[in-house]
Amino acid sequence: MNSDHVSLITQLYEAFARGDVPTVLAAFDPGIEWREAEGSEYARGNPYVGPDAILQGVFGRLVGEWDNFTVTPRELLATPNGVVALGRYTATNKATGRPIDAQFAHVWQVQDGKIRAFQQYTDTAQFGAAMTP
Description:
By secondary structure, this protein is an alpha+beta fold. It has a single domain, classed as Nuclear Transport Factor 2, Chain: A, CATH 3.10.450. The protein contains four helices and six strands. The protein has helices at residues 3-18, 21-26, 51-65, 124-131; strands at 28-35, 48-49, 66-79, 82-93, 99-111, 114-122. Strands 2-1-6-5-4-3 form a six-stranded mixed β-sheet. The longest helix has 16 residues, at 3-18. The chain starts with a helix and ends with a helix.
């Protein structure tokens, strides 16, 4: 079990919860590859390569499209090359007023103390329904 990886990902979720985007982006390798769940509205840009692409294509959209977007990890499982996080998303879509309460699995790959890759799995149908007028 790599406790350094778990600690890094724990700190990342804590920074995200505080809205500390600079700290989140600083944890990313410059060449990070970020993949949103297939079937998601956000997956159209897959893979997002580099922190700026993630900031514009994912984080910026989440802030613009959702109120109170919360990522709550419930369990972190160390892997040889990173961490798998299990948890829930909650938010309310700004355009429709519809809420989500969706489970997620995040697969984080860590290399040399930086996050090298991310893969999201979530209930894309729930997100789509909440976003559809």
